[in-house]
Every structure is written in structure tokens, then in C-alpha cells.
Amino acid sequence: MHVKNLLSILLVLGSVSCKNILIFNPIFGLSHVKFISKMANIIADHGHNVTLFQPFHIALKNTEGLIKNKYIEIINYYPDHYDELLKTETATFPAFWDSHLMNNPVLSAFMIPKAIAGEFERTATQLLKDKVALDDLKSRNFDVIISETFELTGMYIAHMLNVPCIPVWSAVRFTIFNNIFGQPSSLGYSQQPFSKLAPEAGFIDRLNDVYRNFFFTITMDGMGQYQNDFIEKAVGRPLPYWKDLIKEAPVYFTNSNEYLDFAVPTTATIVHIGGFTMDLEKMKHVDPLPDKYAKILEERESTVLISFGSVIRSYQMPDNFKAGIIKMFESLPDVTFIWKYERDDVEFQKKLPKNVHLKKWVPQHSLLADNRVKLFVTHGGLGSTMEVAYTGKPALMVPIFGDQPENANMLARHGGAISYDKFELADGEKLAITIRDMVRNPKYNKNAQELLKVLSHQPIDPKLNLMKHLEFAMEFPNLRSQVPAINQMGLIAHYYLDVIFFLSLIFILTVYLTFKIISLLPIRIVKSKID
Length: 531
Ligand SMILES: *[C@@H]1O[C@H](CO)[C@@H](O)[C@H](O)[C@H]1NC(C)=O
Hints:
Blueprint: H1 2-13, E1 20-24, H2 30-45, E2 49-55, E3 73-77, H3 82-87, H4 105-129, H5 131-139, E4 144-148, H6 153-161, E5 165-169, H7 175-180, H8 203-235, H9 242-247, E6 252-254, E7 270-272, H10 280-284, H11 291-299, E8 302-307, H12 319-331, E9 335-340, H13 346-350, E10 356-359, H14 364-369, E11 373-378, H15 382-391, E12 395-397, H16 404-412, E13 417-419, H17 428-440, H18 442-456, H19 462-475, H20 490-494, H21 497-530
Parallel strand pairs: 1-2, 1-4, 2-3, 4-5, 5-6, 6-7, 8-9, 8-11, 9-10, 11-12, 12-13
Helix pairs in contact: 4-8, 12-17, 15-18
The structure holds 2-acetamido-2-deoxy-beta-D-glucopyranose.
């Protein structure tokens, strides 16, 4: 570690000076916290002074050990109501499993902003009013602040401290932010839930694309506005509009990987660093499997790992989904299943056939690295999606909510994965047929391995991409030359609708006049022939 650090420092010092960087890490969703923490490690590994500022919005567990670089200074900001947070049970969102309403784009647009951004309000308000904490940050003279565009307090603190801010985003894309940096509409380029992608897409798909995109934009707009409002209230004076603040940055980092993602038009300002959390060398040397897992893998030729991640819980799955899954287990007695199931449930265990092992915790890295695990059934959080892609493992993606449907479609496009409708978990027969095919048909493994090979050979390492662009951005914090102004001009100018209308009019007029003239001509010709 030490030698590696020193080496990186020497390498970096050759061209770039060490900077003093504040990374804002709001403690809220684990996937966000993991993303920011990994970014902090890498930036510190490259020799910069990194301070991690962590305001607690919830009392999140499982965050220990995320910060690996021991030079990172961590400032935990516990709000006055932290004891209350400790007593609150971690939300597990059982309604996301099968409520059609929870995933409804129209309803989301009205509910999500308050439901999510509302969670930030108390801690953020206290922090924004906390002169001691802000003065302390000010006195540390940061060169730059890195903050995700999800929880916006960090961006506003950067503004108040007069320090440039670099926005990052832990998902593949949220078009509302990409558009701020000049990306044209990605309609038809990336696949919306329940839509097909070109060339299969038809009118209904395109209609669905517009519908979902429209309400999703309203949802994200609402999230930004909600925070903008309570931040202004806390500070007690007008502050810049949230989009204008984000817009000031010379780069915007997103967790998309160009070789995994859809082929989407973009601008140079949007830097895709997806995959920077993966370490191919390390993945080749995973921890050996604990004995009891080694034994499980010996039971049958094929093993399937099932995990729906850490936010929603398998034990809260609706009974008809569970029944479908049990039916699938029974139909595939020659396959062993390891299911991440967060509860000791003797009654439930009794209903299961012998080929199933419920485990509260699974060594996911080591299992995915083992050839005897033929398939990963996952919810398709971006962390798991990346891990599947970088281990070359076939996956049955069963997206539950949020960005998971898009991740599922994104991975399925490469042919090593299938996106499976969660409501069809209830259909045990279909589930069994799908899983049997994925375990037996070598094409899934072949395609997944092919993707791994592509990712291993990508021309620019995502970590390098992150560091080079970060250092470039710190050098030119006000550079705006790579952001086009055209998409600020409204739909008519952006899509040249006025010109299209004008030219169409000319065309129609010309056709009309030509016909008018021709319709007069033949009479004369006919007439002259008769004469
Ligand atoms: C980074 O930290 C070291 C050790 O605390 C300090 O000597 C150095 O001046 C810092 N560099 C910057 C750019 O703040």
C-alpha cells in the first residue's frame, strides 16, 4: 500500500501538483456512499489531500471499511437528531416489490421529490446554519469540492465557500443533468423500461419513451427544486438556481462505461468513468471461498446465486413471487441455488427443496469468480451490474426500481444477460425455463466472456480517465468551451423546427404551383394536337 502510494505520488507529481480536495459524502443510500468512497480512495491514492465530509441523513450501517486510504481525513457530521436516526429502522421499501403505483412515472413525479429530498432537509438545514462547521471548512482552503448532484447541499456549500465544485453522478445517466452539459436527447439511443430499442422499436415504444422521459424529468426537477427551496430557507437569502450552480463546472463525471452502456450521443464535458470501481487484477485473486460454500458448490454441477441487493429484502417478497421461485427450484433439481435471504425463517425453509441454501450473507465476489456458479440472478443495481460485467458471468436481471430497469436493458444488450419482468417471478414455469436455458446454453457465457474481454481491453482505463479529467478540471475550473449553447434555445431552435416548417412550406407551394401549371398545359397540348 505504502509503496504503491509513493509510486502514484511520484507519478502524479511529474505533471500535476497535489491539491486539497473536499469530497462531500452525504450518508444516505449505500450505493451512493460506496461510489463516493471509492472515488475518494482513488483520488487519495494518486497523492491528493482528500477530506471526506459526511453529513448523516440516516444512520446507515455497513459503511465501515469503505475508506481504504489511510491518508483520507474523515469528518463525520452528526446532526442533533442523530439519536432519533439510530432508533429508526433502516427503510427496506417492501412496497417496491409488487406495487404498480410505486413504479408509476406519473405518481413518482409527485411523490419522489418530497419522499427522498425531504429526507435530507433536517440535517442539511442544521449544517447550512452551522457557522462553526462552515468556518472550519472555509479555513481548510480547499482547491475544489466534489459533490454528487443527488443531494445538493455540497454544491451550495461550495458556492458559499467560493470554491469550485465538480459534480459527479453515481448512476449511468440521469438525462436532466446530462442535458445541462449539452447532451442532446438520448430518446431512442438508450432503452426505457418496457420499450424496445431500435431497430425493433415501433410507435408505441417511442410513445412510451417520451412518456417516461417526460415524467422522469419532472421527478428529478422536483428533487432539485425541493432542495433549492429548503437550502434557501436555511440560509435565509436567495441563492442561484440549482441547475445554474451545476452548470458552472468544466466536467461532469457519470458512472457510465462507454463499452457497457448504450451508444448515446454526448459531449466532451461529460466524462464517463464507469468501471473505475472495478479492479481487474484484484478480481483475479479473490479471497478463497469459505469452507461451507466450497462444499455447497460441490453438491451439483451447476450452482445459481440469487441476490436482490441490500436495499430491498428477499424475505419481504410477496408470497406469490416466493411461490413462483419455489416452483422453479423444484423444477430444477439438478441445480444448486444459493439465495441471499436476510432472515432465519424455519417455516419458509421447510417449504424449500434440498437444492436450496438460504444465506444471510454471501461472499459475492468469490462466488462470481467461481466457474461452477453458472448464473447470477440479481436486481441489477449498478454495483452488481458492473460486477457481473467485469466477471463475465451470465445474469438474469430482475429489476425492482430506480435505475435498475435501465441497467438491466443495458447489460442484456450484450447478450450475456436477460432482463426479466419482476411480476413474472410469480410464473414458476417461465422462470424455470429461463433459468434452465441460461444455465445450459453456452451462448450466454460466451457473450458475457466477450463483454469482459472488451472491458479488459478498453483503450482508456476508467481510473485514469477520472484522474486525468479531474486534474484538468482543477486546472481550468471555468472552462465552458465544450458545452454547446444550442440545447438552451428551446425545442424549436434546437431541432430546427422553424426551418423544417419553412422548407416544407416552400416544398408544398412548389408542388402546388407545378401542378397548377401542368394542369393548364395538357389542355393546350391536346388542343394543339387536335388542331
Ligand atoms: C497536504 O497535506 C500535507 C500534510 O498535511 C501538507 O503538508 C500539504 O501542504 C497539503 N497540501 C495541500 C495542497 O494542501
